[in-house]
Structures are given as C-alpha cells and as structure tokens.
Design brief:
Elements (H helix, E strand, L loop, with lengths): L16 H34 L10 H22 L4 H6 L1 E5 L7 H13 L16 H6 L1 E5 L3
Antiparallel strand pairs: 1-2
Helix pairs in contact: 1-2, 2-4
C-alpha cells in the first residue's frame, strides 16, 4: 500500500544540507587532486627544461590561494554546465539544474560556482528555506535534486 505524502522513491526531491555537504567534501578532495596534478605537471616540465634537481613548486601564498580558487570555480562550473553534477554530486545521486529542470548553462553555472567557493556558508540556508534552497540557489534560480544517472 503506497504511503501518502512523500513517496519512498526520492527521485526529483530537493536535496537537503547533509547530502550537499557530503558532495562538497568529495568535490574538495577532487579539487585538491586536480591542484596537485597541476603542480606535479609544472615541476615535471621545469625538470625537463631546466634539469635537476627536481623541486616541487613553492608559489607565494596569495598565488596558491587564487589558483586553488580558480581551479575550484572552473571544476564546479564546467561540471554543472556539461552534466549537471560534479563527482560528489554523482556519487550522492544529486543533480544541479534550473528550477524547471534544464541544465544551468555556462554563465549561471559559473556564477553559482563563484558564489559556492567564495561564500560556502550560504549552504547553511538550506534547512531554513521552504524549498530547501541555498543562498546560491536563490541568487541563480537553481535547484539541487536527487537524480538517477
């Protein structure tokens, strides 16, 4: 006998703060891996061009911060534009779309990525919102829903 109200299948239901936070932690690990790969590539190229000794890059703190921020924004923006989900989103069965269900598009995805990386505490608005929207979702008119890939 089916239950009234919420169905047992969460497909299409708006994701809560726990699922989104877990996806964000996974994505932070992916971004760290990408940044590490970039640094290893740079140091390998330096070794090929200048010769030994092998040195790991040691950029100034501000450059490392800006570079990490840019990698995170590009990673999130590209993933949301192309598939609607990052690695963390896909592992947790989430998809980021417009309110109507279509993919975000380049500008909207990049703006959402900039807001998510620059102001991550906006995610804490989800439990307070009637439609489970983060502050970033409210600004760009997006939604994060459960989805089967």
């Amino acid at each position: 006998m089916p239950r009234k109200g919420r169905e047992q299948d969460p497909e299409g239901e708006t994701a809560g703060v726990v699922s989104r936070c877990l996806a964000a932690v996974i994505d932070a690990l992916v971004v760290f891996g990408i940044a590490l790969a970039v640094q290893l590539t740079i140091s390998g190229l330096r070794l090929l061009i200048a010769g030994p000794p092998y040195r790991f890059p040691d950029p100034p703190g501000w450059l490392a911060g800006v570079g990490g921020w840019a990698v995170a924004v590009l990673y999130l923006g590209v993933c949301w534009t192309v598939t609607g989900g990052t690695v963390g989103d896909r592992l947790l069965g989430l998809r980021v779309t417009r309110l109507g269900g279509r993919l975000l598009g380049v500008l909207r995805a990049l703006l959402r990525a900039v807001l998510c990386v620059s102001f991550p505490v906006g995610l804490l608005w989800v439990p307070l919102s009637r439609r489970r929207a983060s502050l970033q979702d409210l600004v760009v008119s997006s939604a994060v829903r459960y989805h089967r890939f």
